[in-house]
Specification:
Blueprint: H1 4-9, E1 14-18, H2 32-46, E2 50-54, E3 65-67, H3 85-100, E4 106-110, H4 113-116, E5 127-131, H5 135-138, H6 143-152, E6 157-160, H7 163-171, E7 178-181, E8 200-204, H8 213-223, E9 227-230, H9 238-245, E10 253-257, H10 264-269, E11 271-276, H11 287-293, E12 298-301, H12 306-309, E13 316-319, H13 324-337, H14 340-350, H15 353-368
Parallel strand pairs: 1-2, 1-4, 2-3, 4-5, 5-6, 6-7, 8-9, 8-11, 9-10, 11-12, 12-13
Helix pairs in contact: 2-15, 8-13, 11-14
Amino acid sequence: MISGNELKKKRKIKIGHISTLLADPGGACCGVETVIANLIKEQADQQGHEVTLFASGTSRTRADKLESIYPNFLVQDGITWDKAWPWDLANIANAIKQANNGKIDILHVHSLESLVLPLIDLIEIPVVITIHDIQGILNKTDPGKRFIYQKFSKKGNFVAVSNSVKESLSIAGIQPNIVGIIHNGIDIQEYSIGSGLRDRLGWIGNITESKGVTDAIKVAWALKMPLDIAGPVTSDNKMFFEKEVKPLLTKGIRWVGKIEKHQKPTFFGNLIALLGTSKIPEAFGMGIPEANASGVPAVAYDHGAANEIIKNGLNGFLVPVNDTHQMSIKIKETTKRINPELCRKWVEENFTARIMADKYEKLYYRILGVQQDESGNIPLL
């Protein structure tokens, strides 16, 4: 934590983070909400900024102030993502009102581009938009989001969570005003290299056909190794689970259900390796650095951001997409070639919340016009 004298000298920024109301930043849910909570913790506790979070009323973060127009997270009350927009729009309107009243210096929006961008000319302060997910644009299942990007994407200050996101959007004919590539970061203190059994493979994610969970099962069968599958089965994927996954839950293959944030260290602590079998290119993939921070290597299909997170032979291996045979071979190599300490060191040097927050801080200052030296450091006032 920076000293009291530094807090007095260094210009504080009044940061407003906007999250969907579907889930709780800092709650049991994982994914984008965890990234938001990790970032806020660093900004408030370590950097000394004044942080306001516009989110669900049950959010639990280190923000100085929580502003919410709804007491719970929406999923808790049975409201699904496709019906959440009225609540999210009201949340955004509240944030804009406070921003225009001088209570916020910079707004940071997470995964709400379709609702924020049409309103961006009404916002009187700079706006940073982190692009966490682009699948709806790439596979054309969300034509509305694609339209919004094409019409308004030159207006905001966009951050991509990987180079893959920027490149994929460009290939799709969409070139938003991307002002930085900032990888997501984990709270590394929550993970350690434990003394678990390390007697099984692991897979984590939403259980959908596109995430390739059945490929992970094929690999486990080929190696005659147990496999723990962690992740939720949503209502729209229940048929896939019942028909394609459940019949395969034999011979040491088990579904452990959705695991919450506090359960992850135990889950990773028992693994030989984490399998990344997604059929679609992932924008990032928090599971890999979380596993690495626990000393567990990852073996993943080589597309999306995987080659930005995995350094072949250091913290895991990359294999061609859909090549379960090569994945089986590389898993055998992990026990001989991968050092758990080096896995964790890789995360410490590249994918911590502290690194993420430092990059965002420099970006905020640049957008706000605060002078920085040649190294991007902020002179203390």
